[in-house]
Prior knowledge:
The structure is a homodimer.
Chain A (H helix, E strand, L loop, with lengths): L1 H22 L3 H10 L2 H10 L2 H10 L2 H10 L2 H10 L2 H9 L3 H10 L2 H10 L2 H12 L5 H4 L6 E3 L4 H10 L1 H6 L4 E5 L5 E6 L12 H4 L1 E2 L4 E2 L4 H10 L4 E5 L5 E6 H19 L13 H27 L2 H6 L3 H28 L8 H31 L2 H31 L4 H27 L1 H4 L1
Parallel strand pairs in A: 1-2, 5-6
Antiparallel strand pairs in A: 2-3, 3-4, 6-7
Helix pairs in contact in A: 1-2, 5-7, 6-8, 7-9, 8-10, 15-16, 16-22, 17-22, 19-21, 19-22, 20-21, 21-22
Amino acid sequence: MAQHNRSEELFDKQLESLSNAIENQDSKAAIQLLEVVDLDRVILLVDRLDTEFRKQLFELLDPERAAELLAQVYDFQGGVIIENLEPEKAAEILTNLDSDDRVDLLNELEAKDSTAILEELNDEIADETRRFMAYPEGTAGALMYSEFVSFQEDMVVSDILDDIQNNQGRYSEFGIQYAYILDTAKRLVGVLPVRNLLFAKRTQLAQEIMIREPITVEVTTQTNELENLFEEFHFLAFPVVDSKQRLLGIVDREASAEAVQEAATEDLLKVQGLMGREELRSMPLHLRSRRRLSWLSINIVLNLISASVIAFHQDTLEAVIALAVFLPIISDMSGCSGNQAVAVSMRELSLDLISPKEFRRVFFKESVLGLINGTFLGTLIGSIAWLWKGNPMLGLVVGAALALNTTVAVCVGGLVPLLLKAVKQDPALASGPILTTITDMCGFLLILGLASLTLPYLV
Amino acid sequence: MAQHNRSEELFDKQLESLSNAIENQDSKAAIQLLEVVDLDRVILLVDRLDTEFRKQLFELLDPERAAELLAQVYDFQGGVIIENLEPEKAAEILTNLDSDDRVDLLNELEAKDSTAILEELNDEIADETRRFMAYPEGTAGALMYSEFVSFQEDMVVSDILDDIQNNQGRYSEFGIQYAYILDTAKRLVGVLPVRNLLFAKRTQLAQEIMIREPITVEVTTQTNELENLFEEFHFLAFPVVDSKQRLLGIVDREASAEAVQEAATEDLLKVQGLMGREELRSMPLHLRSRRRLSWLSINIVLNLISASVIAFHQDTLEAVIALAVFLPIISDMSGCSGNQAVAVSMRELSLDLISPKEFRRVFFKESVLGLINGTFLGTLIGSIAWLWKGNPMLGLVVGAALALNTTVAVCVGGLVPLLLKAVKQDPALASGPILTTITDMCGFLLILGLASLTLPYLV
């Protein structure tokens, strides 16, 4: 406990020192401070700096050092930093990043910001970056990097070893594990695990010791498929090729695993009502408010639509006011039951355990489950309603409404993600609102409709 | 389209062939079939097999082949398979798995099932497995594997090279990248990247060419910290040591990234109301129903508690029946606003961008945001209520209730995950129900309380 407080005190001091260094334009002091603290503290310091100081820090550091720091923080932190800098300054820093990091950061920005920065990059880097940015999210193209070592197939082992020794510094920077062997048309013809050079004669040709017909992935390969390939073959990386088998880049295990992780995190944020870029509390208030409101505004309209069902049944409700107690319960419980089915469908979709066309399977599996759980919950709530008001018909109405609506909710919840996927929409973002609107309307209709049918027994 | 249908037809045929092979106890046909299809189809086939056939398949295959198949399917599929087998059979198969896969699968089981299987394993493997299983989830200990190559510090390079050449088959199986150098007390004193052997003289000692004072992680290191270390140092793996610097295992980048991904996925399932093990639609109905109900049952009780607020204000509601329309809206909208704040807190906690003790920061950041968004939403809904019934006071009551309750919801939503984390509970599982119960009660109280105070102007 004491230690924890001390570390918080220490952090406050570090933040103050860093702020002071920035205020005094003392880049040496800032660099020194950032070098002595652990990475998690660096990330936290960048998060907690004043927006203005944060900007000044990246202007203060030389581009190489700034790029290093940018590579350390999370992408969405980096995005906020980059978009606040002048495009020239941003381009200078991005030039010093690896190709995949550069692409990731630019993808965090709005189109107009990234375009402005791309214009400031040198032509070669800009072209490559634009090409990499064009590969859609969730494909191998979007995950690959262009830093790899390749040799011509007719090179001899001793020349390759010389090249490796001469370029040790540069190669070890991108952690060389495999070398890629190309023919004269730059088509990939083989892969050479660098450690195989240990067992090779120095006079052999690359093509003699390389692994022929290497397993490659196309730029369009989906992340899911990529994960399966990494699972199936114990390689650290796959070469990414175009349709003519020309080597475009490398995608490694880590990038693939990270992409799956990011997709899961994004889904988590979306199902909880956060659209677009990630929110951190260190972001400007107006941005946070606007992003959250954009989601809430859609929701309130949907809420009004479903509540209109109640408005049309005010007479029934007025006659049996006790029903008003059960309206929010029906709404909330159906939402919960439906969301469980949404989660299972989203999960099965993301694991390719179900195709978006398998409506019948989902409907069958969910309707049976919905009937069972609906009967249980309906009986419970019906009994409570009966006991509370001593009116068995009230219990029947409330119980039947919840039972039926749970069945509906579970089926709708299971099917909506499939439907959205089939029309190429994002299940994480839209399933919840669609589900609750349907089940609210249906639930209110059921309880108030059943009540109006049995009104003589209720009053 | 036509092709897709053909591939579905093909899958149905494969499933039938596999089922037939199992029914006829024809292990050769089953193996042949599983070998010619892609991994994603293997996974789907195992998912779609009848539960009984699935069990028989794993009894039919020889343990080594069964282990291979088990390593290919998802852990939660594997868990279901293993728990259906006789413990002796399960142990036979698990013996053929890598240590980390074995531990992962046993961790999927209930304690009584895993204990039964552990008793059937040979003592050495069982001891190691128990030791590995004891490391808590989310630590390096739970992610490490025990398959690594180590040499004594006084070995010469030529002996090391001989050993590598002699054991090429076994070593390449666990993709050797680093060798670990130990002193006589089995303490880790250095790391030797295998490719460095390329540059070494054959007469040098391991201790001369190894990297000294290697960066190690302790078994208790948290996944988050591990991810930061992988980010900071471009290593493929870290050695995991005990407090006496003895080498216990290896944790690699991939395992670390996967652990983070699994945590995100688990959180996603939990916030949507799925507790415990993952649900697949191929699981038995009673299991799926029971697991979902366990969550719903808690929720319905919480719902009854919050709805009781309405029951206590029936008189007010009877006097102003229009309020009944707004009760579900208040409940749903506050839930949505609060869940956004829950998501941001969960995200900041998982990234270590906030400590569970920073209540004040979260409260300050959220209350301002809540007031802004609440005012917007309250004005909107208040105006609609006013226009609908032509009663400005109704608009004021409804609008003020939503505005205030949004502020409450956003603060509560931001704080609850911190509070749960501080008392070592799981924010993903409990935040939602706690949030909605508090905000429902508060919301109903606000709208009905404000209405009863202004009743003369409402009727």
